[in-house]
Amino acid sequence: MLIRGNATPAVNSFAEDVREGLGKSGQKELPSKYLYDEVGSALFEVITKLPEYGLTRAEERILRGHSEAVADRLASHGIVVELGSGNGRKARRILEALARHQPTTYCPIEISPTALESCERELGDLAHVSIVGFETEYLDGLGRAVARRRPGEGVVVLFLGSSIGNFDRDPGEDFLRKIRQELEPGDALMLGTDLEKPLAQLIPAYDDSLGVTAVFSRSLLARINRELGGDFDLARFEHVALYNGQDRRIEMHLRSLENQKVSIEGANFRTTLRRDETIWTESCHKYGPQEASEMAERTGFDCVAQWLDNEWAFAENLFVAV
Ligand code: AVI
């Protein structure tokens, strides 16, 4: 079942966000959420398969190896809500394990109807699992999924893939607090956090040899051209992934290769870019292994378990709402 919500950010708010981000007097920026339209999400799916990007495979190994242990701790949790499920593939092991204890409802939350349809295709064969997808923003969907709980039934929220890392640290914790507000004590949150690692490994993960991440980043300019009537010449921008050691994050930027003017008719906006000036498109924060339990403590959870991958520094953290 697919329940539609207020998913589609209005063209107006896209235009407004673009105008605001590119109109800044200092560092120009574009909100990374606009990278994940149908085209960007398909490109991100390819990124997850790249040899340089070990994050997704690390998380899959952990989930494959430890889903039974998770399910044993969460035996009364019959509702699984995944924030940003993509095609739902990562939830399979957890759902299989939980459904061995009781019938389970899987609620993927996505702004993309195509992703929700692939969840149904990907997971429709699971015994004792019913799928109720919500095409809406994360917190709206979470509230609606939680409202389906029966008396005594627990909820598990999956926020996987280190998506928390795409928030700045303080707003990320605010978001965890908002998740907590939707939950009851004893409900759980599985939170994936990508860990700090040597730059020789980290930089290529965000600047791969095939250039897929560069295309992904530039796809945001193509989206502005398509949806807002922009005239970005994509060939005049180069993808840059740099590590900000103070904030412990990868920053993805698009660097202007020359002095240029850009006009975005649908946003009623014009700007100029100097040669080497950048547009900041995404941040990917990295964590210390102990940082998740500190975040849990500050946001109303207890980190009751953590699993690490042996090949790629990544942590899957199990939080329980206190
Ligand atoms: C979606 N998110 C967790 C990815 C990351 O690693 O932060 C986004 C990404 N951007 C470029 N490569 C991956």
> In what range is the share of β-strand residues?
25-35%
Q: What would you call the shape? A: globular
Query: In angstroms, what separates the terminal alpha carbons?
Result: 32 Å
Class of secondary structure makeup: alpha/beta
The tally of strands reads 15
Bound molecules: N,N-dimethyl-L-histidine
- Tell me the major beta sheet: 9 strands, mixed
Mean pLDDT: 95
Supply Rg.
20 Å
Helix content: 25-40%
Low-confidence stretches: none
**SSE string, helices as H and strands as E:** EHEHHEHEHEEHEHEHHEEEEEHEE
Note down, in words, how this protein is organized.
The protein is an alpha/beta fold. Helix content is 36%, strand content 27%. The protein contains 10 helices and 15 strands. Strands 1, 3, 4, 5, 6, 7, 8, 14 and 15 form a 9-stranded mixed sheet that branches. Strands 2-13-10-9 form a 4-stranded mixed sheet. A two-stranded antiparallel sheet has the order 11-12. A hairpin with a 4-residue loop joins strand 9 and strand 10. The relative contact order is 0.17. The mean pLDDT is 95. The structure holds N,N-dimethyl-L-histidine. N,N-dimethyl-L-histidine binds next to strand 13.
Please sum up the structure shown.
With 322 residues, the chain is of the alpha/beta class. The chain contains ten helices and 15 strands.
Blueprint (SSEs and pairs):
Elements (H helix, E strand, L loop, with lengths): L1 E3 L6 H12 L5 E2 L8 H10 L7 H19 L3 E7 L8 H8 L4 E7 L2 H11 L5 E3 L1 E3 L2 H9 L7 E6 L9 H14 L5 E7 L4 H8 L5 H17 L8 E8 L4 E8 L3 E5 L4 E5 L4 E8 L5 H9 L1 E8 L5 E8 L1
Parallel strand pairs: 1-6, 2-13, 3-4, 3-7, 4-5, 4-6, 7-8
Antiparallel strand pairs: 8-15, 9-10, 10-13, 11-12, 14-15
Helix pairs in contact: 2-9, 3-4, 7-10
Bound molecules: N,N-dimethyl-L-histidine.
